[in-house]
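Q: I have 163 residues here and want to know how they pack in 3D. Can you give me a structure?
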Amino acid sequence: MDTTLINILCLILLFLGLLGTFLPVLPGLLLSICGLLIYKFGTDADLPMIYIWAFGILTAISAVLSYVIPAKTNRKYGGTRWGSIGSIVGTIVGIFIPIPLGFLIGMFAGVFIGELLHDSKDMNKALQSTKGAFIGFIYGTGFSLVVGVAMFLVVVLDMLDVI
C-alpha cells in the first residue's frame, strides 16, 4: 500500500479518535492508538518506540479512569458507595441503550438511583452526588482529549519531520 494512503488512513483514525473522546459512538483513544500503530509499523516512519509505549499506557489509564473518576468524584461530593456502584453500573447499562449519549445518561441515572436506594429521603444529596459524577466525567474526557491531541500532534509532527 502506498505510504501516502497509509498516512491518510492514520490521520483519519487519529481524528476519529479525537472525536471519540467525547462522542460515545466512537471508541476514542482506541482509534487513535490504532492510527499511531499503523503509522509506526505501516510506514517507514522513524518514530521512537517510547511514543508507542507511552501512548499505549496513557490509553489504558484513560480507559480505566473513564469509569473510576466519575465514581470517585461522586464520593467527593458527598456520595456513597451506592452512588459509585450506580455510576459504573449505569454507564455499562447505558452503553447498550440505543439512545444518543446513553452511557452518560446511564451514568447519571445510576448515581442518582444508587444514592436514592441508599437514602430515599435525601434527594439533595443524590443531586450533589450526580453533580460530582458529572464533574468526574468532564475530568476523564479532558484527560482523554489531551492524550488524543498529543497522539495526533506527534504523528503530524513526525510526518513533517519536526520530531
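Q: Anything worth noting?
A: The mean pLDDT is 89. The two ends are 24 Å apart (CA to CA).
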